[in-house]
Amino acid sequence: MYEANHEKKFNDYFETVYSIAAEYYPKKADVVTIEIFNKKIFPKVDNGILEQQKDEMAFIVKTAISYCVNRRFEEIYDHYFLLVYGIAERYHFINPDDATQQVFEKKVLPAIKRKKFVGDDDYAKLIATIARRVCNTIYNRKKRRQSASLEESEYSFSVSELIDPSVKIDLMIDLGRALEQLSRRQCLIMVMTIEGYGDDEIAKELGCSVSAIRQARYRARQKLKKILS
């Protein structure tokens, strides 16, 4: 029964899904199309979610676009993370984790949604330019704040900097609960960071590279943001 349903939905929506995949992956639209059906559409056929939709086509389109955007974002993030982080580290007064997050979330992700960064081209120069602009903006903003108030040290690293400022919570209570939902490794990295350990020290303690620590911390912060929002 499942196979028959899969075949029907595949035939019904193949051209639609393929056309969307081709917009983000011109050279491997066929591969991405199969992934979308296997990972996103067929499971929704099996559990009846697709049949519950008032407009199946609109749901399929939304699902395909979401998959392509998220897939491409993960690729861009994994490929250019160290480049962006390295640029952010060169600036005084700014937290490289925060800057890296802003580059990917506020600049790269919206660009991908607008169908930029498609295909297999090398986007290192463009990503670097975006990173420098974001870092310059953050740097100038913090410098202005420093001039306005000398009481706040811009070199301090606090829990409030660890989490997106837009997340309004009782840090002493909710942060502890949120940390419990991270993996043991992620939790340890976040706790050691809060306690003031450097990336080199954390990497040595966990037996991995500094770059691995930075990427794991970034992902942990993203998970915390979702938990606490």
Overview of the molecule:
Helices cover 74% and strands 0% of the residues. With 229 residues, the protein is an all-alpha fold. It folds into three domains: 71 residues; 69 residues, no CATH class; 70 residues, Winged helix-like DNA-binding domain superfamily/Winged helix DNA-binding domain (Arc Repressor Mutant, subunit A, Orthogonal Bundle). Helix 1 packs across helix 3, helix 4 crosses helix 5 and helix 9 crosses helix 10. The protein is globular and about 60 Å long. About 10% of the residues have low confidence.
Question: Which shape, going by the Cα principal axes?
Answer: globular
What is the subunit organization of this protein? single chain
Number of strands: 0
Low-confidence stretches: 150-160, 162-172
Whole-number average pLDDT? 82
Bin the helical content. over 70%
Structural class: mainly alpha
- Rounded to an integer, what's the Rg over CA atoms? 21 Å
Q: Distance between the terminal alpha carbons, to the nearest Å?
A: 41 Å
Give the amount of beta strand, in percent: under 5%
Report the order of strands and helices.
Answer: HHHHHHHHHH
